[in-house]
Amino acid sequence: MKKLFILLLLPFLAANIFVSGNLKYEILTETTNVVNGVTHQFISASLTNDAGTVTPQRIHVLKADDTIETTVWSFRDNTGVLKNKNVIDIAKDFEAKNPNYEVVAAVNGDYFTTNQTINANMLFGSRMVNPNIHDKYYSLALTKYGNHIETYKKLTTEKQYAYFYDAKTDALYGAVELSQVNTQISTPGKTGYYYRYNSANDVVREHYVFDIVEKSIIGTFSSFYTNEGTKVNQKIENSDTKIAIVTTDEAVKSILAKGVKVKIQPKIKDVEEGNTILGVDSQILENGTIKTFEAIGGQSYENTSVRHPRTGIGFDENNRPVLFTVDGRQTGTSNGINLREFALIMKSHGVVNGFNLDGGGSTQTVIKENGQFKMVNVPTENPYRVVANAVLFIKAKDSSRVEETITETSINLTLPSSNYDVFVNGIEKSYQGNVVTIEKNDYIHQSISVVNKTTKSTIYTKLIYASKEKEPTEPTFTVSHEVDKNKLKIKINFTEADLDIDRMYVINQVNEENKVALVQYKGLRMATFDSVPENETEFIIYYELSNGKKGEISYTYKTDLPIVEEEDEDEGKKESSNIGLSIGIGSGILVVLAALTVIVIKRKK
């Protein structure tokens, strides 16, 4: 609901005069407008600088309540490339591409060049556009609600990752480390991606194809964000508008089959999923102390000490963000301010730590009123200057919060109600009431999302990277042999494991003959020797695993002996009797024949 309060403040009221040394900030009139969770203060004021010069100023202050999120956004054209636009166009583009959100207010952001920020720029959804920070400047890491986490002079980029988001709800289903771009994927458990891939030797294979909607390539840095992918079985297309993903990881295959969008970019050290990064010129207010021009540093002493239009972001005692703009170069109406004056303004509105953003002709303040974006300040340029990014106060369709408690062993979530689905690595987790406990697993990445069942919008995302590396399993071996046509075959059966066998050979310890153990099929290698040993022989099997570890196995070959069967005792007696009978019969026949011969002779005589 919109509330309007107009306060006419008299100069003599001490409560509206703020002094620091020779600096003085005096509020003359103030209009306060509360719209959809954002309080907008429009102030006419008098500023006195260190030299005692008094000038009029128009100031806009934006504060958000607990339902408002803070993010950073850049306009992308239909090829996915960043294009400079004014803050109104950037806000419209955000709403068009994120229909579960509404932009309530916005200001311009970082310094820029042609279609790129000067400093690190990470957008809504933790999409990295630019990882670099200029030597003169800084970048701030912010939470989903705009809390200041860290100030960086340099970001550390790590290995390239793919992050998978449900195509309908944007729930984070998983994250996986990628192999180097455009390299073949054959080892189990690996995932790779292909961009502008051109190989004459490519073959037809199963993979997923994604249309790129956002991309950034700066030197060796690259990042991509896509639409929902499609499974195909064909050669990989050579394209600068598409990404192909190939995986041998069964968990990744399961996630891809659900219908996901993908973000590909390097993991940024110490920056969490859901954070954004905003480039700034300099810190002008530190722990409540207004810094000197020399200590402020930034673009230049001239830029710091001379009065210009200004844009800035500050953080109050609760680390909540406050946005500021001050018009300038409009003599008699709003002359602009130097950065010490700007620091006094911030401090007067409850800010403890304040930072200067891009100013001058870039300074723009946008409010959404009655469904329309309105430029509420008076920029020095018209048409409005186009800039590389903007800081947005946004409101989700479901602005409910999930309370989290993380211990060494678990992630405990208290949901707004039971009207939410909870996903862990893309798998729905059952729960009772509105409390969910998820056991931590230090050996795997854990992606957690909470989705409103009615609006299908994600209200909570957490990604906990693996903190420990699981020891890879090694194969176990069973050795046997076989004699085939005077050849000895040493057979080594092995179990499937995380570590592959890179090479294996077998040595006869008697004659030192060496044979390679060749792969026969999955789970079997065999070394064939051209002769069979006559005696018991020792063999040593040497192997090397994919992690470089070496080992050996001892195997003893024993001479193969013929099988001899023992005679049955009764059968032996039978054979002896038969032999005796045969001899007796034979002797009788000879006696008879001899007698007949004698008879015949006698008759002849």
UniProtKB/TrEMBL annotation:
The keyword Transmembrane applies. The keyword Transmembrane helix applies. Residues 224-393 form the Phosphodiester glycosidase domain. InterPro entries: NAGPA. The chain crosses the membrane at residues 579-601. It comes from the Bacteria. Keywords: Membrane, Transmembrane, Transmembrane helix. This is Exopolysaccharide biosynthesis protein related to N-acetylglucosamine-1-phosphodiester alpha-N-acetylglucosaminidase.
